[in-house]
Amino acid sequence: MHGTKLQMYCSWSHLPDYAGHYVPQLAYTILHHSKNANGPIINLKGIIIGNAVINDETNVLGMYQYFGSHALVSQKTVRQIEKHCDFSLGVNNQSKQCIEASNEVEENIDSFDIYNNYAPLCFNSNLTVKPKKIIHELDPYSDYYVYAYMNSGDAQKALHANMTKLKYDWEPCSEVIQHWADSSSTVIPLLCEFMANGLHVWVFSGDIDGRVPVTSTMPSIDRMRLSVNTPWHPWFVAGEVGGYTEVYKGDMTFATVRGAPSAKLQAQESSFTHYSLPC
Fold first, then answer.
1. CA separation for the pair 272, 279 (Å, rounded)
2. CA–CA separation, 270 vs 274, rounded Å?
3. For the chain, what is the HEC assignment?
4. What confidence tens digit (pLDDT) does each residue in 175-223 have?
5. I need a labelling partner for 62 at 20 to 30 A (CA). Which of 38, 115, 119, 219 fits?
6. Phi, psi angle pair for 243, to nearest 5°
7. 235-246 burial string, b = 16+ CB within 10 Å, else e?
8. pLDDT at 25 over 80
């Protein structure tokens, strides 16, 4: 592929919340390698991220505020977290009051899927590798299908994965590595740099995700101090409100996706396939 120019619009909105870090970091690498090359090797046009962690401090506080605003935890508990917890970079020890309030939250949210607040749960993990017939609604068993598939010998062979025969299973969120030493607390400077270099930045937020909710993403964007180019307004799918959007100077678009969970935005997947996205 050396010497070949590719036209690419990096569209990874379907990736998990951590795409808020590794998509901008990958795009940053592409951008700077292209600058150093004799002409763009990959003609990157922009990035799309959904329900993405882009700033740790506002993300954590916004998550608790979302739980409170959706009557999933008490307002008293949220106020205690706002008063006694410090989610700033470098703060490793929290107060007793903060820990108590955080524990109360955990007890209250333990019985539903915070990535999709209103979805049914799966109570039968004894499933086959092959999923059911494809449906547009969220399948609560989908995580088990993925787990079974990714740990099957045939899949790992085809993907050239687990060549060293690890003693533990593949998991979507593994606890094998306990402490990350190279995880950036924010990617806001990268997003600003993309816009300064003429790249489009689209940030989507499914509004029934409680893990990286709209109340996390919007304060994170506020930290960028961008001027509004197109004010907040609804966007539509077949006459129905699909969500709300706001466009900022510098070519950043933020859009909520109504009734959509997490970064997968599964509840609105058909909308993205058949209709124009907000801009």
1. 13
2. 6
3. CCCCCEEEEEECCCCCCCHHHHHHHHHHHHHHHHHHCCCCCEEEEEEEEECCCCEHHHHHHHHHHHHHHCCCCCHHHHHHHHHHCCCCCCCCCCCHHHHHHHHHHHHHHCCCCCCCCCCCCCCCCCCCCCCCCCCCCCCCCHHHHHHHHHCCHHHHHHCCCCCCCCCCCCCCCCCCCCCCCCCCCECHHHHHHHHHCCCEEEEEEECCCCCCCHHHHHHHHHCCCCCEEEEEEEEEECCEEEEEEEEECCCEEEEEECCCCCCCCHHHHHHHHHCCCCC
4. 787 777 777 889 999 999 999 999 999 998 989 888 899 999 999 999 9
5. 119
6. 160, -160
7. bebeeeebbbbb
8. yes
Amino acid letter for position 203: V
Residue type, position 84, single letter: H
Q: Can you read off the two tokens belonging to residue 126?
A: 């004894």
**Distance (Å, rounded) from C-alpha 263 to C-alpha 17?**
6
Q: Which of 210, 191, 217, 202 is nearest to 56 (CA)?
A: 217
Q: How far apart are CA 272 and CA 278, in angstroms?
A: 10
Which distant-in-sequence residues (6+ apart) come within 8 Å of 75 by Cβ? 68
Q: What whole-number distance in Å separates Cα of residue 99 and Cα of residue 141?
A: 33
Q: Which two tokens stand for residue 179?
A: 């402490």
Angle at which helices 56-69 and 96-109 cross, to 10°: 60
